[in-house]
Amino acid sequence: MAIDTELMEHTIAVDQSITPGVKTLDIVLVDEFGNKHNTSVDVEVQRVKSQTMQTLTGMKHEFTLC
After folding, report:
1. Range(s) of the domain holding residue 39
2. CB atoms < 10 A from the CB of 13, how many?
3. Of 2, 3, 58, 65, whose CB neighbour count within 10 A is largest?
């Protein structure tokens, strides 16, 4: 997945079985030379009610990486 390095945030969806709350994600970035850079980020899962999401995929939770 590409991340806009100027904006420095990304919205992703999680499965409906994931409970709301703060989660820690392990991140591995691979640079242009193939070197891996490891870090982690805390994200907050929040409930989002969306007619489109309900119609297409069932209820999902979304969160934003900031």
Report:
1. 10-65
2. 15
3. 65
Q: What is the pLDDT of residues 5-36, one digit of tens each?
A: 787 777 778 888 889 999 998 988 888 899 99
Please, are residues 45 and 63 in contact by the beta-carbon 8 Å criterion? yes
Q: Give me 51's structure tokens.
A: 């007619």
Give yes or no for residue 62 having a pLDDT over 90: no
Number of domains, the chain: 1
CB atoms within 10 A of CB 45: 16
Tokens of 47: 């409930």
Residue 1 forms part of a structural domain: no
The 3-state DSSP class for residue 26 equals strand
First to last CA, the chain: 16
DSSP 2-23: ---TTT--EEEEE-TTSPSEEE
